[in-house]
């Protein structure tokens, strides 16, 4: 394609709207504007120039701000749908069927529909990720598409601009100096502009004063930060980068830490404290007796000796002792352990006497650890109890008469025992739950008589490791930096030219904050006795009001 | 007088000062006649700002004394947060005033702040001890920065409202006239809420009910307004109290729904009375006050406050929030409803800025967007805290 040659002789690349050299509008559209679109003056944007190949089309699609805004709005609306009902992550149900049932039971047919459409786990749906990815691509493409031409146009600015450019700026002035000699007006303007911290360039009697050009790069910097952040988020999907595990640990127990190979944790004590305040109105209204003050697990962190066999627990070295509290996780070696949950007085152990139903004589006691039950409990060589099935959270029998468990937590333990005794070497089967015994034959000699329980406090901890945190931090920082640059500074330009006859022409442009550039203009107008400027977007009536406002302040 | 009493008194002083300042601004603008009353108007305008600043200092005094008394930043429950939001809104107005010197902005900023503070006062005001998850210096840093960002963003809606009051032609029937009046009607509903709560409170209305919550556990609840909607399987415990008219399922909170409906009833009655007495729309009544407003300037103020507020909001409501979430829960983001709505707010203002910069959505369109943005902020404050239960719910 051929370059566009301006009247002044300068060759501009195809798609340029305003001549980079003199500022004359080149397209019919630009020529018809009262105030020029100054976003990329003197440069061509790729997406506005080529539209032939498939690559062009894809590029143009993603570079379009219209598409970008549409993607933002779609993401926004879709995200809000995920807050109508609880997300699955906040639903306490063991499996998929349990979750499905939860939505239908709690919210009726709407809940069922919500679950079936995938809205109950919306933010992990592939189409949601695709949406965010498209937004990311749009940010990258649009930034390159506009950033490079913008940089070129800012770098190659000429001081002297053509009349057709100057007159098509929003704020303009033309005329003679209001008082005094006009021979050194431009010098006076230069002096004043420098005092106002403008960078001033001169070409004879033409002057360009510029301030805050770096702020134009703000959006591109913040977009870069966003992309780095999104890349960090994307990395979570790769193995070895992110660990998210949880564990329940009872007081007095030492357990291997899931996800943190070679480390063990001992729970010395779990502490739960409440505030001793007088009940507040909100507490009374909601019937809450006490407000929690502290959840704390006092732990010892152990590391396996380097030469130990994996899983072996006898060669442990103390790493540190710590009190894990909410907001105060245990941090070690890039991992962190968080206080997430607890259970007070949880059933730990249940004891039974193997008792003859007729005589009441006990053959011995069996103590069952409810978190780690054994397969069989041997009393002596002829007498043992086999644990055939275990239902930690027994919830009744299903249609086929099989016992069901709600969760792996021992809230309501139930057992199927096989009792092997001298009288019955093949064993007698018995189903035992709290205050309930079912015998398949109905004529067992022996029973498992409940004899006692032992409870303990449990602490629920979450183990997390996230190698992307530094990337996210850098991304976030760059984003905020770019945002601040783009928002709190602005790019002001003032062009002034004095002609042979002493007449002065002025034009001013800023990307934002016209209020402040007008204050600067007021200052130079007064100092160098320049003709009064006008704002071409203010209609006459409003300009009067503007005068009022100035008097007021 | 104890510190907490002093704190309460200072808040009342602030409320009265904002009320007086609103009237002064209204007066200063109305008295602007071409007969040389200009200077007098300016004088009243200046006094109004002075009174606003006095109110703000009293408000700040409330904040600091309550902080000292309770030992933590007073942003930990609905009353405290909303009151602080009102304070930052007035602070943002004062900041913008000193940048642009337009008192007319206070015409919308102060009444909205008054409504916010008045609404906050309907919540229990005692100092509540902090639950473990809130015991962190990030409570102070995250909540205050987020509230500050939101209040600066809210100023754009304030400027937008004034812009539209002048710009929208209320003589002609149309969508814009309808929605503008709808916004003003919504503000009247908040008045309705305050009136209803206060009236039943003064009358000492109290009725206790027992109900079954969504986990199937029996609970008790006290209604301070006559129960239109009863909780799930509710039984009246207080003798002589009225039985709820309609019972709602467990996932709807009967008391909250009742309060909303009472507010709508009272607000609508007030609105109808206003219409009957003045025989005009509220927008028509307010229009003379904004006749002299410079639209270009208000458009710029609206845009500028988004520019100032957006980075502060990003820092407080997203970045600081993520840092705290990482420290408290081990994940910087968990798709909690409040987090999602902070993201939605952020996306919305990002769209606002892109539309303005690239599509030239200025003036009227920009003003409407600013009002939608404020609606999202209020939704995040009210609905997400009170209706959608999550990690952030205050009540």
From TrEMBL, chain A:
Q: Which residues cross the membrane?
A: 58-85, 126-148, 220-238, 469-489
Q: Transmembrane helix: is it a keyword of this entry?
A: yes
Task: Provide the membrane topology annotation.
Answer: Multi-pass membrane protein
Q: Where in the cell is it found?
A: Membrane
> Where primarily located?
membrane
One biological process GO term for this chain? Answer: cytochrome complex assembly
Q: What are the record keywords, sorted?
A: Cytochrome c-type biogenesis, Membrane, Transmembrane, Transmembrane helix
InterPro entries this protein is in? Cyt_c_bgen_Ccs1/CcsB/ResB, ResB-like_domain
The ResB-like domain sits at 65-441
Q: Does the keyword Repeat apply?
A: no
* CC annotations in GO: membrane
The protein here is known as: Cytochrome c biogenesis protein
TrEMBL record, chain B:
Query: Which UniProt key words apply to this protein?
Result: Cytochrome c-type biogenesis, Membrane, Transmembrane, Transmembrane helix
| Location (main, coarse) | membrane
Segments crossing the lipid bilayer: 6-26, 47-69, 81-98, 105-123, 143-166, 178-200, 259-277, 301-325, 340-357, 369-391
| GO CC terms | plasma membrane
Cytochrome c assembly protein domain span: 87-392
What membrane topology term does the record carry? Answer: Multi-pass membrane protein
Example of a GO MF term: heme binding
Key word Phosphoprotein present: no
In the UniProt record, does the keyword Membrane occur?
yes
Q: Which GO terms describe its biological process?
A: cytochrome complex assembly
InterPro entries documented for this protein: Cyt_c_assembly, Cyt_c_biogenesis_CcsA, Cyt_c_biogenesis_CcsA/CcmC
Compartments, record wording: Membrane
* NCBIfam families, A to Z: cytochr_II_ccsB
Q: Which PANTHER family match?
A: CYTOCHROME B_B6 PROTEIN-RELATED, HEME EXPORTER PROTEIN C
Q: What is this protein called?
A: Cytochrome c-type biogenesis protein CcsB
Native organism is: Ureibacillus acetophenoni
For this protein's source organism, the top of the classification is: Bacteria, Bacillati, Bacillota, Bacilli, Bacillales
């Amino acid at each position: 394609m051929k370059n566009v040659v301006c009247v002044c002789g300068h060759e501009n690349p195809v798609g340029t709207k305003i001549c980079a050299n003199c500022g004359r509008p080149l397209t019919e559209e630009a020529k018809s504007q009262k105030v020029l679109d100054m976003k990329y003056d003197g440069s061509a944007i790729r997406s506005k120039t080529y539209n032939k190949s498939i690559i062009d089309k894809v590029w143009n699609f993603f570079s379009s701000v219209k598409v970008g805004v549409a993607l933002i709005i779609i993401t926004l609306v879709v995200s809000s749908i995920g807050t109508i009902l609880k997300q699955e992550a906040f639903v306490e149900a063991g499996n998929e069927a349990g979750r499905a049932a939860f939505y239908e039971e709690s919210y009726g047919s709407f809940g069922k529909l919500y679950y079936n459409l995938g809205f109950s786990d919306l933010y992990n749906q592939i189409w949601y990720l695709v949406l965010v990815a498209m937004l990311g691509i749009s940010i990258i493409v649009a930034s390159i598409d506009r950033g490079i031409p913008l940089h070129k146009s800012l770098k190659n600015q000429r001081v002297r601009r053509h009349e057709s450019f100057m007159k098509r700026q929003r704020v303009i002035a033309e005329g003679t100096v209001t008082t005094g000699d006009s021979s050194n007006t431009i010098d006076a303007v230069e002096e004043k502009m420098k005092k106002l911290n403008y960078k001033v360039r001169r070409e004879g009697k033409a002057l360009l004063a510029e301030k805050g050009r770096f702020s134009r790069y703000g959006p591109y910097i913040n977009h870069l930060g966003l992309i780095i952040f999104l890349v960090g988020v994307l990395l979570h999907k790769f193995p070895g980068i992110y660990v998210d595990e949880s564990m329940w640990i009872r007081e007095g127990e030492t357990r291997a830490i899931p996800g943190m190979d070679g480390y063990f944790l001992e729970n010395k004590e779990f502490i739960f404290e409440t505030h001793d305040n007088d009940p507040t109105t909100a507490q009374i209204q909601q019937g809450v007796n006490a407000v929690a003050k502290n959840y704390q697990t006092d732990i010892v962190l152990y590391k396996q000796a380097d030469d130990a066999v994996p899983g072996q627990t006898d060669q442990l070295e103390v790493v540190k002792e710590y009190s894990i509290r909410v907001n105060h996780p245990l941090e070690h070696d890039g991992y962190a352990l968080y206080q997430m949950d607890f259970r007070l007085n949880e059933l730990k152990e249940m004891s039974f006497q193997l008792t003859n139903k007729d005589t009441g004589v006990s053959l011995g006691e069996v103590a069952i650890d409810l978190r780690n039950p054994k397969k069989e409990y041997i009393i002596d060589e002829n007498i043992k109890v086999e644990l055939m099935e275990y239902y930690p959270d027994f919830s009744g029998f299903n249609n086929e008469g099989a016992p069901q468990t709600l969760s792996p937590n021992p809230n309501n333990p139930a057992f199927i025992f096989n009792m092997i005794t001298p009288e019955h070497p093949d064993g007698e089967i018995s189903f035992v739950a709290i205050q309930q015994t079912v015998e398949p034959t109905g004529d067992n000699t022996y029973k498992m008589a409940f004899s006692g329980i032992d409870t303990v406090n449990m602490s629920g901890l979450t183990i997390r490791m996230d190698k992307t945190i530094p990337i996210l931090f850098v991304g976030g920082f760059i984003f905020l930096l770019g945002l601040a640059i783009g928002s709190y500074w602005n790019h002001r330009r003032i062009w002034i030219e004095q002609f042979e006859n002493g007449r002065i022409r002025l034009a001013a442009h800023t990307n934002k904050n016209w209020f402040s550039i007008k204050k600067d203009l007021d200052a130079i107008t007064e100092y160098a006795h320049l003709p009064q400027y006008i704002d071409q977007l203010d209609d006459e009536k409003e300009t009067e009001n503007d005068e009022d406002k100035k008097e007021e302040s | 007088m104890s510190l907490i009493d002093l704190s309460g008194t200072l808040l009342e002083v602030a409320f009265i000062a904002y009320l007086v300042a609103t009237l002064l601004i209204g007066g200063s603008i109305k008295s602007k006649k071409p007969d040389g009353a200009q200077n007098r108007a300016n004088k009243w305008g200046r006094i109004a700002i002075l009174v606003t600043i006095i109110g703000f200092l009293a408000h700040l005094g409330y904040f600091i004394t309550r902080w000292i008394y309770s030992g933590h930043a007073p942003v930990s429950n609905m009353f405290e947060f909303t009151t602080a939001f009102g304070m930052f809104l007035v602070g943002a107005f004062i900041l913008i005033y000193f940048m642009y010197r337009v008192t007319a902005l206070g015409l919308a900023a102060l009444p909205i702040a008054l409504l916010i503070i008045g609404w906050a006062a309907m919540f229990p005001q005692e100092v509540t001890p902090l639950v473990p998850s809130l015991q962190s210096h990030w409570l102070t840093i995250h909540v205050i920065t987020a509230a500050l960002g939101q209040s600066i963003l809210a100023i754009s809606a304030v400027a937008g409202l004034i812009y539209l009051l002048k710009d929208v032609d209320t003589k002609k029937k149309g969508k814009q006239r309808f929605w503008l009046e709808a916004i003003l009607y919504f503000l009247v509903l908040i008045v309705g809420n305050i009136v209803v709560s206060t009236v039943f409170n003064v009358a000492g209305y109290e009725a206790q009910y027992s109900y079954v919550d969504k986990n199937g556990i029996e609970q008790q609840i006290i209604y301070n307004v006559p129960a239109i909607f009863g909780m799930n399987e509710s039984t009246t415990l207080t003798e002589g109290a009225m039985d709820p008219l309609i019972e709602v399922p467990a996932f709807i909170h009967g008391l909250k729904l009742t309060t909303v409906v009472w507010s709508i009833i009272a607000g609508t009655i007030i609105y109808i009375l206003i219409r009957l007495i003045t025989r005009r729309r509220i927008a028509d009544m307010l229009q003379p006050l904004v006749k002299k407003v410079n639209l270009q300037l208000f458009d710029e103020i609206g845009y500028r406050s988004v520019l100032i507020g957006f980075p502060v909001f990003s820092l407080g409501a997203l970045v600081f929030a993520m840092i705290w979430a990482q420290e408290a829960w081990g994940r910087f983001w968990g798709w909690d409803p409040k987090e999602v709505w902070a993201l939605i707010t952020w996306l919305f203002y990002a769209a606002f800025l892109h539309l303005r910069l690239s599509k030239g959505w200025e003036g009227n369109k920009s003003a409407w967007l600013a009002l939608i943005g404020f609606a999202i902020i209020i939704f995040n404050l009210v609905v997400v805290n009170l209706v959608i239960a999550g990690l952030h719910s205050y009540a």
